[in-house]
Design goal:
Rossmann fold, alpha/beta, 2 domains, four-stranded parallel sheet, single chain, 13 helices, about 375 residues, about 15% strand
């Protein structure tokens, strides 16, 4: 019996990891929506290339097929697009890509949205699909909501519309776990707001503590900017889905403002370090140590890092975003001829830097951790 055909619309980390999960039971194709080409993947290739970023950097030989044919034949299409427009335009970009995809959806297919929406957001998606495809969602085509966590194939909620949706997804290993679409939207929004608001509280209280020159013991020191900046897109989706006077919109908007202001706090603190240590710009190197995933769906972390880099260049010319510890000698991170001010942006990078400093004890280094307390050493 032939395997069902599955397509991932978006050459992203999330889509690639989903493909790895499904390749043994389906024929999987990943669509690069930028090049408008489809890439066939098999189990042997995915097992030998588990990481999309490393795979693409190796320039592998892949089998390409026309986009229209792949999407028209797909039994299930997972919407996993790579969003790269400025943060304020990300929701528009997502709708635009869904509109383009919907033109190719075939009758009887199941379209699975893996991007988060706020309450009511999937109703708008259904209207886009029906208008572009000419098919009726729930009758001739099914629609499912399965928002994926950043850089992950994990989801907390699954809901579907259409007779074939839940059964087809269950056959692939994804069981509907919510009452309906609106309950899934509310549950996901609850998860995101609950996690983010806790962190935002730590950020704002730590800021007041620094201004008052007191120590605040909240346990927030280990929550790095990498952890909470990943949900900027999700918050924007929640905020956009509600009327401006709704409480949920206020909560999402307040959290967004705090997260976006945190970059300014980091830059201000970096400038204070430069002043206190009387470091000359020409003899100082600032490193944003942040192992970013260049292929994840959301661009929030990438844009936040680039924004901080641009602001810091107002004070020091040599400012780089270093993605992980690529060089065992540490040459990409620490410059032995300069004073290195390293802004650590994730737990993984913090651990890597500890090891690096043991190996290069003679290099002048000051560390600023991008967590709510902005502690240094």
């Amino acid at each position: 019996m032939p395997k069902p055909k599955v397509a991932m619309y978006g050459l992203t980390t999330e889509g690639y990891r989903l493909a790895s999960q499904l390749v043994d039971r389906t024929d999987v194709t990943v669509v690069d929506e930028t090049l408008q080409m489809a890439i066939d993947l098999n189990g042997a290739f995915l097992k030998s290339n588990p990481n999309l970023g490393e795979m693409m950097s190796g320039e592998p030989l892949l089998s390409f097929r026309p986009l229209e044919r792949v999407l028209g034949e797909a039994r299930v299409i997972f919407f996993t697009p790579k969003l790269r427009r400025p943060s304020d335009e990300a929701l528009i970009e997502a709708s635009s890509k869904l509109r383009e995809l919907s033109k190719y959806v075939g009758k009887g297919a199941v379209l699975v949205n893996c991007l988060p929406t706020g309450p009511g957001g999937n109703s708008e998606n259904v209207m886009i699909i029906e208008k572009q495809s000419g098919l009726r969602v729930g009758e001739s085509v099914s629609y499912a909501y399965m928002p994926l966590m950043p850089s992950s194939a994990m989801t907390t909620v699954i809901a579907s519309v259409g007779a074939d949706g839940s059964g087809t997804l269950e056959a692939l290993g994804f069981r509907q776990n919510t009452q309906n679409m609106i309950s899934a939207e509310l549950e996901y929004a609850s998860t995101i707001l609950g996690e983010v608001i806790k962190t935002v509280t730590e950020i704002e209280l730590a800021k007041r503590a620094r201004e008052a020159k007191v120590v605040l013991r909240t346990g927030g020191d280990e929550t790095f900017v990498d952890e909470f900046s990943r949900y900027v897109y999700d918050l924007k989706a929640i905020q956009a889905s509600e009327d401006s006077g709704e409480s949920i919109s206020y909560l999402a908007g307040a959290a967004l403002k705090s997260l976006e202001n945190f970059v300014r706090y980091v830059v201000d603190e970096t400038r204070e370090v430069l002043k206190e240590k009387e470091l000359k710009a020409s003899r100082t190197r600032v490193v944003l140590l942040w192992g970013l995933d260049r292929y994840e769906m959301r661009a929030d972390r990438i844009q936040m890092a680039e924004g901080a880099q641009q602001r810091l260049r107002d004070y020091v010319t040599d400012v780089e975003v270093v993605g992980g510890m690529k060089s065992s000698s540490g040459s990409e991170v620490l410059d032995p001829l300069k004073h290195n001010l390293v802004v650590v942006c994730s737990k993984q990078d913090n651990e890597a830097l500890r090891q690096l400093r043991k190996e290069r004890k003679n290099v002048e280094t000051t560390v600023l951790r991008a967590c709510p307390s902005l502690r240094r050493d």
